[in-house]
UniProtKB/TrEMBL annotation:
It comes from the Eukaryota. Keywords: Decarboxylase, Lyase, Pyridoxal phosphate. Gene3D superfamilies: Aspartate Aminotransferase, domain 1, dopa decarboxylase, N-terminal domain, Type I PLP-dependent aspartate aminotransferase-like (Major domain). It comes from Panicum virgatum (Blackwell switchgrass). This is Aromatic-L-amino-acid decarboxylase. InterPro entries: Aromatic_deC, PyrdxlP-dep_de-COase, PyrdxlP-dep_Trfase, PyrdxlP-dep_Trfase_major, PyrdxlP-dep_Trfase_small, Pyridoxal-P_BS. GO terms for biological process: amino acid metabolic process; carboxylic acid metabolic process; phenol-containing compound biosynthetic process; primary amino compound biosynthetic process. Its cofactor is pyridoxal 5'-phosphate.
Amino acid sequence: MGSLDTTPAAFSAFGDDAGSSFQPLNPEDVRSYLHKAVDFISDYYKSVESLPVLPDVKPGYLQRELQAAPPASSAPFDVAMKELRAAVVPGMTHWASPNFFAFFPSTNSAAAIAGDLIASAMNTVGFTWQANPAATEMEVLALDWLAQLLRLPASFMNRTAAGRGTGGGVILGTTSEAMLVTLVAARDAALRRSGSEGVSGLPRLAVYAADQTHSTFFKACRLAGFDPANIRSIPTGAETDYALDPAKLLEIMRADVDAGLVPTYICATVGTTSSNAVDPVGAIADVAAVFNAWVHVDAAYAGSACICPEFRHHLAGVERVDSISMSPHKWLMTCLDCTCLWVRDTHRLTDSLETNPEYLKNDASESGTVTDLKDMQVGVGRRFRGLKLWMVMRTYGAAKLQEHIRSDVAMAKMFEDNVRSDDRFEVVVPRNFALVCFRIKPRHGMTEEVADEANRELMERLNRTGKAYLAHTVVGGKFVLRFAVGSSLQEERHVRSAWELIKKTTAEIMEEIVVE
């Protein structure tokens, strides 16, 4: 595209004039477009509270709103912004809304947005240290900072007081990727340990997780080549608050060994998606040690809470696991995508994932003194994700981040207390962190089936109002509503308003049931 002509006459918002060159990074256009985009973002955050959380649109609506064929000629940037406001925003589910209580939060902050914007503008591809030293070292630094906030042992650090450590981390897109790369590393280690020729021993490898483990684990197992018949989904129940029972795990693993299988990998979860159950990390690590199996801790959501000393006990025993991942894009004010993975021995990852084509060879990589993050992930190319995470920690500091977590937990406890004080409802599992699982309980002769239908109707009516958005799960065979506090704009008044709406809607539903 040639060199950038910096004379004023060369500046143009768009290049339709004959003889004018296409300059997609014209500095004046960059300034103008980004000013308009930032104004849009600021206005969006001011107004998102008043927008329906769930859109009232039908599948395919956007194709009817926007032209079907790509434009042949250029148009002012204002045209795109106008169509964004008119067609795209009305079809958005507003995860940023303070009235969003579904799934888990997708938090954000001014510092994260700024970091992501700058990283996108620089558009670096830091697959090796040499490809972008600052991007690699920023990611290493940010991961070590966060590891310290979590009080992870030094064995997970890229850098320790004694110099470069044996462990380290990498920022990936999602927990799915963290599971996949550690499964591959564990698979290869087990094959070597069992003396397998190539992958001939793969059908004998077995992996384990509780039935509450995120579904992405079972997908990652299939992608890593494990036989679906050897993927153990271990039942949980109310007696363990739906956490994995180490005794049951040990029994199943021993039976697999007796059957000629090789226990290879256990996924323990701190804060399951359905109910926020916490698997006992230390006890699971003890079981795994009997079989030399890899232990991975999925702390995607609840890991953020463990920067607060009062929640750190949920990671007790982490020094004996092989890897742990958590996602600051869920609850630590860092926009998507940002999943942090730490391993005790980086070589166990790089031995399975390293690529070394001639065109990427360089003195720094050959020296062994640097980290080439391409060798700790599935792909080669990678975004400058470390910048936004570093900006969040550098701007807000540990105290503000802890305050954010504690505020959300306090609001969730307030909601839980409200539910417990109303005899029409029950809290189905003990609240962990900032998620409350509740339901209308059967009473006055109501059957479980009718109660399930009442709860489903409650969720659907709440969501149709546009004033709140809740999701559901099934726990112990019961249809349960999930109330997840944590949206970045949420305040106590939003939680109170949602509770009033829940009470009002429930009264209407119960009256209809009585009439019927």
